[in-house]
Design a protein that fits this description.
- By secondary structure, the chain is of the alpha+beta class.
- The protein has one domain.
- α1 packs across α3.
- Helices cover about 45% and strands about 20% of the residues.
- A hairpin with a 6-residue loop joins β1 and β2.
- The chain has a two-stranded antiparallel ribbon with strand order 1-2.
Length: about 70
Amino acid sequence: MSNNNTQHSNILKHLRTTKGITVREAMIEYHISSLTKRIHELRGLGYDIVSTRKGHPVTGQKYVRYTLITEE
């Protein structure tokens, strides 16, 4: 299995079992430094992944949470 396929599997597993994933979570938990690119690739494979822009309640720092909507 290639590195991208392993990263895809880790991301999909995370998305299926949680309320989404952020770039920070992907870096810390899976050592994925290019989550945005992996999400783009997964969308190209037919996965319905939504991007939600958020802001940290204390620092105000902006970030995106990716969520898997449905699977056929």
